[in-house]
Design goal:
There is one protein chain. The chain is 72% helix and 0% strand. The protein is an all-alpha fold and 299 residues long. The chain has a single domain, classed as ABC transporter involved in vitamin B12 uptake, BtuC. It is globular.
């Protein structure tokens, strides 16, 4: 009976830990299916975590806080699009620039506003996403429901067909009279909203406020899950659950003390490296991913 209880607790912990990874990975899925590499998930999550907790702390409303996180993620995605879609800048550099900027800017802003060492005040029950059923909260249910919704949007709607087409062959899309830049910006709007919500989960559900560096590399784990999942919704979800299970398992192994704590704590990241080494770029990657679209002269 005790073993069964431990397994159930481990599964429940994995689902909770998978939630921000899944939201961020789906965010990356929309951007990269449109042909835009998004390495800025870490920065968007961090900004969303701060914005959500800060707005909820000031307004007293969890929903207004979540809206603040969503809008913050969208603003950063629009900035990313301005650099990479409008001005055709290097997508990897632009993404990393957002990460670096947010890592330095967010704690500074937090300190300037709240003077709590780069943190926000502790959030009360009305300012957080509390567990509503099966030990999970509204954002967890939303994240897992977003998987079939994303599959339906991408594979069963005209918009999804156009989005996938622009990630595969933007020249053919342009020849058909469809706006390449507009489609990529639309994907980035969804990307920013989901990435902001991923950050909000960290500060408003998993924790009771924002703290410095609370994303702890989860944006990069989400990118690894997206690659492992071959840029498809359900396999990406399974990859997020795998990484989350490794994270939950290492937390339990820390208490057993069978292995050195440093090794146990690194297990999720070791697993990520092994997965990426085994999977590589493989199939499923959009063919125009990372390639700025330059309209042909006379077209």
């Amino acid at each position: 009976m005790e073993t069964a209880t431990q397994i159930l607790l481990l599964v429940a912990a994995a689902i909770r830990l998978a939630t921000p990874l899944l939201l961020a990975a789906l965010a990356g899925l929309y951007a990269e299916r449109s042909g835009v590499i998004d390495l800025s998930l870490e920065g968007k999550m961090l900004a969303g975590a701060f914005a959500g907790a800060a707005v909820a702390s000031v307004t007293g409303s969890v929903w207004v806080g979540a809206l603040g996180a969503i809008l913050t993620g969208i603003v950063l995605s629009l900035l990313h699009g301005f650099a990479t879609v409008t001005h055709r800048g290097n997508q990897v550099v632009a993404g990393m620039a957002i990460n670096i900027a947010m890592a330095g800017l967010i704690p500074t802003v937090a300190q300037a506003i709240f003077a709590l060492g780069g943190q926000t005040p502790q959030l009360g029950p009305a300012q957080r996403f509390l567990n509503v059923a099966l030990g999970n909260n509204a954002l967890t249910f939303f994240a897992f429901l977003a998987v079939p919704a994303t599959g339906w949007l991408l594979y069963r709607t005209g918009w999804g067909l156009r989005l996938r087409a622009v990630g595969e062959n933007p020249y053919a899309v342009d020849t058909a009279g469809l706006p390449v830049a507009r489609l990529r910006y639309q994907a980035l709007l969804v990307n920013g909203a989901l990435a902001g919500l991923a950050g909000a989960y960290l500060s408003m559900a998993a924790n009771a406020g924002f703290s410095r560096d609370m994303t702890a590399g989860k944006g990069y784990l989400a990118i690894a899950a997206l690659i492992f999942g071959r840029w498809a919704p359900v396999p990406t979800m399974l990859a997020c659950l795998l990484f989350a299970f490794a994270d939950a398992a290492q937390a339990q192994l820390q208490t057993v003390r069978i292995l050195p704590s440093q090794f146990v704590g690194a297990l999720p990241y070791i697993l990520t490296v092994l997965v990426l080494a085994l999977v590589g770029k493989g199939g499923g990657m959009p063919k125009a991913l990372g390639i700025p679209y330059v309209k042909e002269r006379g077209a």
